[in-house]
Amino acid sequence: MPDTDTQRDIKVKLPLPLLLLLLLSPLSTRSAELNPFLQEHHLGVIVAHVRLPPTLRKDLASGLTNKILIRVALSQDGKPLTRKLVDIAVRYDLWEETFSMDTRVDDVMVDSQTYRQMDDVVAALGNLRLPGLFPSQTAPRAELALTAELLFNPVEKERMDEIRKWVAENSGAALPDPTTVRPGLSAPAPASDSRALFNRIFQQYAAGASIAAAWKDAGSSKPFKVEELRDEQAR
Amino acid sequence: MRLLVRAAFACLMVMAFGPACRLARGSDQDTKLIVQDIQCRGNLSTSCKFIRGHLYLQVGRLLDEDEVKDAKLRLSALPNFKFVDIHLEKGSQKGRVVVVIEVAEADSFTMAFVLGTSFRRSTDVQTLAARFSDHNLFGAGKILDLLVLGEVPITESAARGYATRLGYFDPQLFGSSRYFLATGLFYSKSAHNFPYLSSLNNGGAGVDASLGRRFGSFSYATVGYRFIFNSSPDGRYTPSSLKNQYLAFDGNLTTLTDSAKNVLLLTYGRNSEDDPSFPTRGWMFHLYDNWDTSRHGHFAGAEARATWRWGSNSFWTVQTRPFNDFNAPFDDDLGTSLTYARSIEASDRFGGIRRGRWYIGPGVTVVNHSTLELGMKAGIRLDTRYLGIVNLYVIGSRQVGTGARY
């Protein structure tokens, strides 16, 4: 296990370029690939080539819990049939120097792994195997497709509303002036990249999202039929 | 008694629903980490006390990860920092952690410049204005603001003058999230030339201070006081058109040409605009009353503005000041106007443009019951890398009606 403090020292020097990268990356880009599989009469999905946040390694070593929310939807002829909510929590134990990764599907714990190396965690997150999501009896002969939306460290709307209210009351935006009623000679506060990050989350809510994140990825599978998949045994 | 009942009810609600709310947020209380210390890193001019004030955690208590994440968002939303991160480090023993808030401070110094050309009524002037602000005075988020404004006549009949204001703004008075303070010193000097007559030189200074309180998310009220050292030069009567244009604060930064020596300032307003220079939505209104306490006279009025998006890059703004026709020399406009604006994309031109807009729109000012001023304003506003906000505009008008001079 590498020395995490040393890692942090190195990476602290990178946030601005990383943030710029983050800001320049379009949120709507879909990069993840979804491959369905059948295991013990249940349909699962491998989410491969996930576009991970540039700050992921730093976030993983923070000692705080990192959450990845995945909304997986099964659709038939473009119409949604059913969906599942997958919640992955990764936490670094500062003393044991291990990473625990717990996976829940619709609030039920389905998997728990422990990793000693950060590279293994990153590899696991980049190629997620999510078994047992949907019963195989769901439209066995129909042409189906899977879609997934991945949100890294999502923020619920209620929390965001609270924070936005706090910001309005504390950032000076609601003040009569330091900036003036007229915008001509307004002296707005300096541009802030971290504020841009905040704005990105808020813009998702403004667009009607119920949950949002500073980093997202999405993907879809090619059309498939359940009867074409080979039923695997559990590992 | 009613207060007691309310408090008891609130306690019962918290006891009944508090744990459920905590569970609903998916808190990670099972981690059972104790906060041993809270430290700041990367802060050079911002005090750790100011930073820690945004993290509602207490040393010796259980670590609340949701609160840590909320604090990161709160700090990220502040203009003081360009980067914020929070992580944990091992404490003195297992289960005890040090919460480290790591920041990279943003440059707290901003500038703004205006170059305006105004062809209005009989005063054709060129306006040059500049504003320099430090948004992190004392490392505590206080604001020091210097405004300098000069007017150069294009036609001989207009005045030549300048005005300055040094202001101090405390957005969180004594750490309060509700109360704020605005105070400033202002000075101006002008010279009027008259054909066949001697010129008139004016100079004046004043001081103002306003205490404000926010209500809800976007509303505010202020009460203040303004004192002008010499409102009537040489003891002579001076028409308002020949008086100095002070850069004063009466709840909003404004210009005034006519004021008593002692004025009580009362304002109420709401401002939900999302950006002071480039609003994309929201609306504001501002009601003010300058109360001459010695003569019991009132100078009251209102301003309102609303902006909405039209398509992906265009915006409409409607603005009105229905009860007065004073000019704002740093951003001259007509009493009621409708403005169309379109975004300018970021580019490397002029050393770097972060964002910008050009705008154009007609307007009308009610000069008196029989005279209207019809005009048009066009301009460009840029957020530049080196000069800050730069605003260039041209405004022209013509008076119509029985009282029109031309």
Q: What report would you give on this structure?
A:
The complex is a heterodimer of chains A (235) and B (406). With 235 residues, chain A is an alpha+beta fold. Chain A has 6 helices and 12 strands. In chain A, the strands form 2 sheets. In chain A, strands 1, 2, 3, 4, 5, 6, 7, 8, 11 and 12 form a 10-stranded mixed β-sheet that branches. Chain A has a two-stranded antiparallel sheet with strand order 9-10. In chain A, helix 2 (15-24) packs parallel to helix 6 (193-206). The longest helix of chain A has 14 residues, at 157-170. Chain A is globular, with a radius of gyration of 21 Å. The two termini of chain A are 27 Å apart. Mean pLDDT of chain A is 75; it is low at 1-29 and 172-185. Chain B is built from 3 helices and 20 strands. Chain B has helices at residues 2-24, 48-52, 65-77; strands at 34-41, 81-90, 96-105, 109-120, 123-137, 142-153, 160-170, 179-194, 197-215, 219-228, 246-249, 253-256, 262-271, 282-292, 297-310, 314-320, 336-344, 353-368, 371-384, 388-401. With 406 residues, chain B is mainly β. Helices cover 10% and strands 56% of the residues of chain B. Chain B starts with a helix and ends in a 5-residue tail after the last strand. At the A-B interface, helix 2, strand 9, helix 5 and helix 6 of A face helix 3, strand 2, strand 3, strand 4 and strand 5 of B.
